Amino acid sequence: MPARFRRLWRTAVVCAALTAILPANASTPVQQATQKAVSFTLKNGLRLVVIPDHRSPVVTHMVWYQVGAADDPPGLSGTAHFFEHLMFRGTRTVPNGELSKTVSRNGGQDNAQTSDDFTVYFQRIAKERLPLMMQLEADRMVNLDLSESNLNTERQVVLEERHLRVDSEPRALAEEQMEAALHLSHPYGRPVIGWEAEIKRIGRAEALDFYQHHYAPNNAIVVVAGDVNPNDVLKLAQQKYEPVAPHTLAPRTNEPAPPRLAPTRLNFAIPGTDLPQWIRIYRVPGYIGSPRGTAEALEVMTAILGGGSTSRLYRTLVVDRKLAVDVSANYDGHNRGPSELMISAVPRQGVSFATLEAAVDQVLAGLDRAPPETGEFDRAKTRLVANYTYQRDNQFLLAQNYGQGLSIGLTIADIEDWPNRIRSVNAPDVRNVAQKYLIPGESVTGLLQAK
To answer: Per the confidence metrics, is the pTM higher than 0.70?
Structure first.
């Protein structure tokens, strides 16, 4: 499974998404023979997606706002993530912290997540409690308590989170610097959690402006997966969400990625680094804005390079040459803007970064010289399709896939046809994307010294 970069969960939750879809549709449901989801658009612009899943009497309810770290105002990085926290501070009718307590008392779980491109809030709960979840979410969509005391308290919480998850974690600090170097002035170069000095500058006026121009039904996608009937969920959504008035939204731009003229190398000596680590991030295309089949070929290529103990990098660096104790390759193509492919390795004791890097580059050069072998090529595609199938068997991941896809602009055809598109990737396609995109000028290499 490709790892997901630059995502921040409010608490410790492990979640991975593969692909996602669904268009904004008219008020009548859209159905196809192979389609699980039914979609509606309410009068206030809110999009509702219902995915019937009758295996257990539970539902996953998600509200996806089409705003993320890339939408942070200039000089105020971390605003979207800060707002994820503020959304739990309560309203006039639901006191601070009471939403999560209510979910817990009713036997459910809740959480939230911020990425570059979206912010999502979810609950997983018995299906009979779905009306209550919609009521709570509709309430904080419009009635959030943005008092100075709430902002001051939560700002300290966010700063402490940054200190704990980034400033005290050498790998996280290194990756933050590498992301900034990779993306230059593009918004993806800012950390989702924000720079500390800029987090401190987010005041009540900035928070109110952000809330009023991003948190609105016409900027939200509600995804409900579970033991439900689509028409019943529509009626419920009309009752709970439709009374919330739409807002004038801040325009959302697609900033072009600045050109890179040369590779970047960063040498880190960060106190607390237990193990040396070699990291490289390539800026590559994703599913949005690239020729059809490009992202799929990159998925297959990454699986060949770093998809488990039979992958090229693992066999060469760990098993055969014994230069590393661990190695991985991960591709994240689910972004509205430029995407990333990361390769990382931990050298064995006594192995220099230069020796390890030369070995990695030799493996990458092998993809340039010739298409992959039949066995590794077929294994990679089989693994990707199997992961897709397993994830659709998980209600939470099923809902996650739809919501994420909608938020970045994919369509329902993308999700339904994704396994076939992976199967249609051929060996020369893998060689072509390796030659075109695994190039030094589009990369940042980080050397994290043990210290």
So the answer is: yes
